[in-house]
Amino acid sequence: RDSKVFQNLLENHSFINYKENIDFVNIVRERLGRPLTYAEKILYGHLDDPHGQEIERGISYLKLRPDRVACQDATAQMAILQFMSAGLPEVARPVTVHCDHLIQAQVGGEKDLKRAIDINKEVYDFLSTATAKYNMGFWKPGSGIIHQIVLENYAFPGALIIGTDSHTPNAGGLGQLAIGVGGADAVDVMSNLAWELKAPKIMGVKLTGRMNGWTSPKDIILKLAGITTVKGGTGKIVEYFGEGIDTFSATGMGTICNMGAEIGATTSVFPYNQSMVDYLDATGRGKIAEFAKLYQKDLLSADEGAEYDEVIEIDLNTLEPYVNGPFTPDLATPISKLKDVAVENNWPLEVKVGLIGSCTNSSYEDMSRAASVVKDAATHGLKSKSIFTVTPGSEQIRATIARDGQLETFTEFGGTVLANACGPCIGQWDRQDIKKGDKNTIVSSFNRNFTARNDGNPDTHSFVASPEITTAFAIAGDLRFNPLTDSLKDKNGNEFKLKPPTGVGLPVKGYDPGENTYQAPPADRSSVTVQVSPESDRLQLLKPFKAWDGKDALDMPILIKSLGKTTTDHISMAGPWLKYRGHLQNISNNYMIGAINAENKKANCVKHHYTGEYDGVPNTAAKYRDEGIKWVVIGGENFGEGSSREHAALEPRYLGGFAIITKSFARIHETNLKKQGLLPLNFAEPAAYDRINPDDTIDILGLTTLAPGKNLTMRVHPKDGAAWDTPLSHTFNAEQIEWFKAGSALNKLANAKKG
Ligand code: SF4
User: Aconitase/3-isopropylmalate dehydratase large subunit alpha/beta/alpha domain location, by residue (predicted)?
Assistant: First the structure.
């Protein structure tokens, strides 16, 4: 039990640390005096301080030490640029970077990949050299989708991993707590800072019975989404239990955990079981499976009597296939009702495109079951009526289904095999069969179906279902088709019913790894130069921000007093700006362009305090900065809600902002601002917000004695009239105050390193 086992087959510097995990769990169990759920065991087994950590589910903030970090190519850029600016020689924990999001689906796998490598060359060159320099693993374009690669190579039971992508929870299928985060959190872990997470509540989902026929694991989460809605999992971990969990594959569990993101859950997890043993064995990790077995009872399952904050029960015996959508993944309709519901709602009935695969549903089992449906149709002389696409989740899956014939089955059916990448799932789809504005229906085995997500067309009605149901729709070409009850006509006009899908969970001949698409960091990293062209408009090296000058800040203009809701989308818009995620100067041109100016009720139109000229928010901010003038933003309630996007905090700092003063903050944004050396402050008397005029200037007094829990004073200088004071509260702790003084959390870290 005390032997050393590597976390994976690709790295020889990271061991599984069950011994420490279990010691920590025992400390916490004794302190709390109650049995623990499995998710709690993983969390508490990774605490920074198991003795001193306050633990109350839904209340406390846990400081954690995750085992590893996974980043996808779009979010990795700024995370790595920030990490580099700390001047550390290598990452503190194992990190991998995956090239999957930037590959557009146009004509098919190989050609699309070549084009993407060309278009994104500078990003890939940067990621490949930066990962080599700082000791990270790099998965090249074509390797597959981050979550599939993590499942195949890195996930193991009892581990805690963070990933800069919302579907990171996919790895819960191998009994791991895998949590999607923003780049700033990834930088913390890369730099050896403890990572903070609000102690989640635990939602128990009890599975009983066994699925049969057309029902698949996807239907469990589709049904659950219908019960909880897209917000039902917020602040919670979903932990599955009950005898039903032992009746399906680990990759099926991965699908369920993946889509836990659609109910807003922090993550989802299954306890260690035989299906995970089988999957670990099949992916060459039998040693890990054996090692985990030794800890199965004490560490890798819930304690007897563990209590959940709520429990939902699903009976697999009676579960039918679900089709969720359009426009939201929680609009769940069982297949038996779909015909009526579709007609009632006037949804377009012709299924234009069926898309299978993606990180959610591209296991060997998924592909085999979908292929069995296709084969059955083929024996009756039928091909796909709809356009049909197949997105393998990884090169290993692609190579294995190419070897075993499923790929050929799909292409003979009329399917197009796309690159091993996100493609249409994230809108990287050059769709040609309809025009923008055409009302139409598509069905996919993906996870998200928000308006315009797949093809940029707000009139596309996108539904999510299992791969086998998606395939059945592609054969029938009609949303009213229920393969469980309805017949089709064969090539001679005779009626027949499709047979329920069949397919093994794991390839009998083992997995074929396919092309080697992994780049390990070199042994000698000293000669590697990180490639960033100074002319690039997509990438820019970061310079450390200046330290605080040690003085109170006086007479600062208000850049904008924003009215109403100010989300991270208002602060740093997505869409076309995503391209500049690695270029702080360029992306800063979107700062607050979505926020409404209280003075004139307009977006992106503010007055320069000294010249009186109206201009865009980023331009005005940059002018102040270039004139050496600090500025503040005034905001309302829950400022910065939405995503964990760190750009929303980097941009105001880059543009010379000093303080963001609001009625309240969304917590992640508030922490992100602190990390970048800004002052997020709150009106201790919220009525002060209304008294402030966008023309006023602001002093912030008391900074030299800034201390946890001690208010600062804001002195407001109206254009006409006497100055007035109002107290400002804050949530800085002692460590965070040091970040402010140093100019940023990373500066603080770099200073500590210099000694
Ligand atoms: Fe995200 Fe879709 Fe890519 Fe999965 S396939 S990582 S859901 S974009």
Answer: 40-477
